[in-house]
Write a structure and sequence with these properties.
With 367 residues, this protein is α+β, with helices and mostly antiparallel strands. The strands form 2 sheets. Strands 1, 2, 3, 4, 5, 6, 7, 8 and 18 form a 9-stranded mixed β-sheet that branches. A hairpin with an 8-residue loop joins strand 12 and strand 13. Helix 3 packs across helix 4. It starts with a strand and ends with a strand. It binds pyridoxal-5'-phosphate (PLP) and 2-OXO-4-methylpentanoic acid. The site of pyridoxal-5'-phosphate (PLP) has 12 residues, from helix 6.
C-alpha cells in the first residue's frame, strides 16, 4: 500500500517561524499543535487506505458517527526529542504501536499495522521537525495518534469505518513545577476500571470515568488521584494518567527495592513503567511487580521503610509523590522532597531519551 501521500503542499498554512518559536519558548502541555497531521481511513472490506499528511485542521464527522455515541476510540501518547546533533528521535514507538493494537482489539476496532503506525509518526516528524524543541531542555514534541469509529448509524455494533489520525503538540513538563512533588488523593469509593473491563486499553472512556474523582481530588487540594481495585477497594492500581512505584531504600550499602502494582488487566501497561523496571534491574536493584494495599502504603510510610513513591508516564516522565491523603488520614512521603532513587531513574531515562546516554535497548528511534 502506498500509504502516506502528501495531499497538499506542506509549506502552505505553516505558522511563521517567529510565532512557532514564541510557542516553543512556553509550550505548556497540549495547548498548541504543529502545522500538519496524518490521517488514514479504514473501511470494512478494503482495510487501511488513503494515508495523507495534511495541514492541521478540523475533522468533519457525521453527527451519528459511532465515536460520538458509543465511544469507539483509542489513542496513544509518545514523545520526540531533539538529540545533541540536532536530529530528532522518538522513544520506543514500536511499544506504543503494539499497545495501540492491543487497545484497538479490546474495543473491537481494526488494528493498525505497527509499520504503518511508525510510518505515520515518521512522516509527521520529518515534516514538522521544526516543532521539536531544542536539545538541552526537558521540552519535547508530544505525538498523539488516535483512532475513532466514523461510520454513521445508531445501531449498537462495531463501526465499519474508522479514521486514524496523528496530531502533535510541543510540550514542557506536564506538571507546572517540573520535579515538584505531587499530592495524591487515594480514592476509596470511585473506581477507574474493573477487572475484565477496558482499564488496560488506552481508550477515552477510561479518562472520562476518572474526571469526577479528579475534580473531587482537586477540591481537596490534591494534584492527582490514586485508584484502587474495583473489588476490594484495597489494592493500589495507578493514577489517572500515570503508573506508580514504591521505593524501599535498603540499609547502607544494600540496593533499593522498587515495587509497582502488577498488570492485572485493569491498569495500563506503561511504556515508562517498563523502561523504569528495565533500568532498575540493570542497576542490580530488586524490582517487584506485586500488589500494594493502601493500608500497607500508609503503614510503611509511617514506619519510614517506604522511602519514596513516584509516578511515571510519557507526559509526566518521573514525578515524585510528596503528600498523600485518604479519608481520615494524611501523610508526607519521606521529607516531602524528591528522593534519590526517583531522581536517579528520572535522570537515566531523560538522558537516554535525549541521546545523552548509551541506548543499550534500541529504545531511541531516530527519524
Ligand atoms: N496509566 C495511564 C492511565 C496513562 O494514561 C498513562 C499514560 O500514558 C500511563 C499509565 C503511563 O503510560 P506510558 O508510560 O506509556 O505513557
Ligand atoms: C501520556 O502520558 O501519554 C498520557 O496519556 C497522559 C495524558 C492522558 C495526558
Amino acid at each position: 500500500m502506498a500509504l502516506l501521500t502528501i495531499e497538499k503542499k506542506p509549506t502552505v498554512d505553516v505558522l511563521p517561524a517567529a510565532q512557532r518559536e514564541a510557542i516553543l519558548a512556553d509550550p505548556g502541555f497540549g495547548r498548541h499543535f504543529t502545522d500538519h497531521m496524518v490521517t488514514i481511513t479504514w473501511t470494512e472490506g478494503r482495510g487501511w487506505h488513503d494515508g495523507r499528511l495534511v495541514p492541521f485542521g478540523p475533522l468533519s464527522l457525521h453527527p451519528a458517527a459511532n465515536v460520538l455515541h458509543y465511544a469507539q476510540e483509542v489513542f496513544e501518547g509518545l514523545k520526540a526529542y531533539r538529540l545533541p546533533d540536532g536530529t530528532t528521535a522518538l522513544f520506543r514507538p514500536e511499544t506504543n504501536a503494539r499497545r495501540f493494537q492491543h487497545s484497538a482489539r479490546r474495543m473491537a476496532m481494526p488494528e493498525l499495522p505497527v509499520t504503518t503506525f511508525l510510518q505515520a509518526c515518521e512522516a509527521h516528524l520529518r515534516q514538522d521537525h521544526a516543532w521539536v524543541p531544542e536539545h538541552g531542555t526537558e521540552k519535547s514534541l508530544y505525538l498523539r495518534p488516535f483512532m475513532v469509529g466514523t461510520e454513521p448509524g445508531l445501531g449498537m455494533r462495531p463501526a465499519a469505518e474508522y479514521l486514524f489520525a496523528l496530531i502533535a503538540s510541543p510540550a514542557a513538563a506536564y506538571f507546572a513545577g517540573d520535579v515538584e512533588p505531587l499530592s495524591i488523593w487515594v480514592c476509596e469509593d470511585r473506581v477507574r476500571a474493573v477487572s475484565g473491563g477496558v482499564g488496560d486499553a488506552k481508550t477515552g472512556g477510561n479518562y472520562a470515568a476518572s474526571l469526577l474523582a479528579q475534580t473531587e481530588a482537586a477540591a481537596r487540594g490534591c494534584d492527582q488521584v490514586a485508584y484502587l481495585d474495583a473489588v476490594e477497594h484495597r489494592w493500589v492500581e495507578e493514577l489517572g494518567a500515570m503508573n506508580l512505584f514504591f521505593v524501599y531504600e535498603g540499609r547502607a550499602g544494600e540496593p533499593p527495592t522498587i515495587v509497582t502494582p502488577p498488570l492485572t488487566g485493569s491498569l495500563l501497561a506503561g511504556v515508562t513503567r517498563d523502561s523504569v523496571l528495565t533500568l532498575a534491574r540493570e542497576l542490580g536493584w530488586d524490582t517487584r511487580e506485586a500488589p500494594v494495599s493502601v493500608d500497607q502504603w500508609q503503614a510503611d510510610a509511617a514506619e519510614g521503610t517506604l522511602t519514596e513513591v513516584f509516578a511515571c508516564g510519557t507526559a509526566a516522565v518521573l514525578t515524585p509523590v510528596g503528600v498523600v491523603k485518604r479519608a481520615g488520614a494524611e501523610w508526607t512521603q519521606g521529607d516531602g522532597a524528591p528522593g534519590r532513587v526517583t531522581l536517579k531513574l528520572r535522570r537515566m531515562l531523560l538522558d537516554i531519551q535525549r541521546g545523552l546516554a548509551g541506548d543499550r535497548h534500541g529504545w531511541v528511534h531516530r527519524v
